[in-house]
């Protein structure tokens, strides 16, 4: 008798799991057919979507910054190695030996 209760309980759970899976597939299918809403958009009072710039792209007064935010100069490999070596040697945990003496 206990075996029949287990079989009945697991059969009911299996049907619920399959029903939930089919329901989820239908919902995902319907959601994929809708037009996506942009991530940085909000609905204004007129009902239209407006783009909102990222806060880091605004200056102190709230205006969009038009100038480049990052300017990098290119380094040669030797310059980069020299800068890394000087940083390593100036760190408090570096030993008294230089990288040339270790090799």
User: What structural class do the secondary elements suggest?
Assistant: mainly alpha
**How many beta strands in the DSSP annotation?**
2
**Percentage of residues assigned to helices:** 40-55%
User: Total number of helical segments?
Assistant: 3
Instruction: Enumerate the strands of the largest sheet in spatial order, edge to edge or round the barrel.
Output: 1-2
Distance between the termini: 78 Å
Biggest beta-sheet profile: 2 strands, antiparallel
Q: Percent of residues in beta strands?
A: 5-15%
Mean pLDDT: 81
Task: Give Rg in angstroms.
Answer: 31 Å
What is the N-to-C succession of helices and strands? HEEHH
Q: Spans with pLDDT under 50 lasting ≥5 residues?
A: none
> Which outline best applies?
elongated
Task: Characterise the protein shown here.
The chain is mainly α and 103 residues long. The chain contains 3 helices and 2 strands. β1 (41-43) and β2 form a beta hairpin. The longest helix is centred in the N-terminal third of the chain and has 32 residues, at 2-33.
Could you give the topology of this structure?
Layout: H1 2-33, E1 41-43, E2 49-51, H2 77-90, H3 99-102
Antiparallel strand pairs: 1-2
